[in-house]
Amino acid sequence: MVPGVIVVWSGNAPRFAAHRIPFVFGRDHADASDERISRQHVHLRAGDRCVTVTDLGSRNGTYANGRAITAQSDVWFPGVIRAGRTVAVALDDIRPFENVQLERRGKAVVGGTLAPACSAIDQAAIEEENIAIFGSLHVGIELAKSYGGQVGGNTIVVELDIMTTLPLAEKLVGTVPPRTMILVLRRPLCLPDLPELAQWLETDVRILCVARDRDAFKFMPDEIKAKLMPRRAEIPAVRYDELAATISDLVTPKPIHATLIEFALLQMQRMNEEQLLRYITDYASGRDQLTGDGLSEYIAGDRAMRDCVAAGIPRRR
Fold it and tell me: Which domain holds residue 285?
């Protein structure tokens, strides 16, 4: 393990830079738009499964996991650190994020976290094999579309929810036969799906299954599972290096305060990414400035309202 820190936001925009620690973090590592960071703002040193954060007498203070530190604090890995309007994440192993640049695959931001999944999908595309992608559905769909782009030809997306069976024939009416079929499994594949699915597995159509987990296949015979997922790609639940740019893409051109990125990174340890991004999208609607405190209040208010509805308490008008 090589401990380090990823700078993910600075001033008014996403940023991506990986540094090994010990490390003195300051203005030279931030964007010029961050006027609140000092030249030598904070010292980071690796401890036993933690990072020791020492404020170096900065003008505007240092925050570790959302709390102001007066001088020095030990923060367990992973730790979220904000110096001025620059936000970084301290990790116990920085190597997967070194020599990496953020790129886009459709609407998905790809950095060090998604690199192994992208590599598996690219290899499947080269060999034109089926593949199952597990994890966040919205990220999985974008990565699956990149497979279709590499293979070429027509790509269709079929979403299966709890109320439907496999509507492949209906989806294909009036369309060019697909080269790639993306099955988004919001519910498990069921026995009524099996005859249609088995027929498609005998064709030259490449099938990509996007599912949250392997339970999506629990009702399928082993032979069908083997054909659907000779390859697998895993999308990690927590994407510290890619979240800030994902949020920026989501709400641009609205201005984002660094505290919103700080708060969102901390929330990744408590809720899944899709839920978090839905909250951010809803919170951003009709607001001119997006802050961490504002998002925190919005989430707390939404949860309180849902608790009232669940308890049968009338909402105030």
Answer: 4-98+238-307
Residue 159 CA to residue 49 CA, distance in Å, equals 42
Which CATH number characterizes residue 220's domain? 3.40.50.300
Considering Cα of 243, then 47, then 37, then 17, what sign does the dihedral take?
Answer: negative
Q: Is residue 42 part of a domain?
A: yes
The Cβ of residue 8 has, within 10 Å, a number of other Cβ atoms equal to 27
Q: Are 111 and 246 within 8 A, CB to CB?
A: no
Give the residue carrying structure tokens 């570790």: 64
- Report the number of distinct structural domains present in the chain: 2
Tens of pLDDT along 200-228? 899 899 999 999 999 999 999 999 999 99
Phi, psi of 178 (to 5 degrees): -75, 155
CA distance 294 to 303: 14
CA 175/CA 171 separation, integer angstroms? 8
Report which residue type is found at 215.
Answer: D
**Considering 206, 234, 262, which residue would you say is the last residue of a domain?**
234
Residue 314 belongs to some domain of the structure: no
32 touches 60 (CB < 8 A): no
Q: State both tokens at 150.
A: 């590499």
Output DSSP code: residue 233.
Answer: E
Predicted TM-score (pTM) of the model is 0.90
Looking up residue 79, the CATH number of its domain turns out to be 2.60.200.20
Residues present in the chain in total: 317
How many whole angstroms separate alpha carbon 120 and alpha carbon 205?
19
Per residue in 157-175, pLDDT (tens digit) is 988 887 766 556 666 666 6
The tokens describing 231, both together, are 């390859």
What is the CB neighbour count within 10 angstroms for residue 91?
24
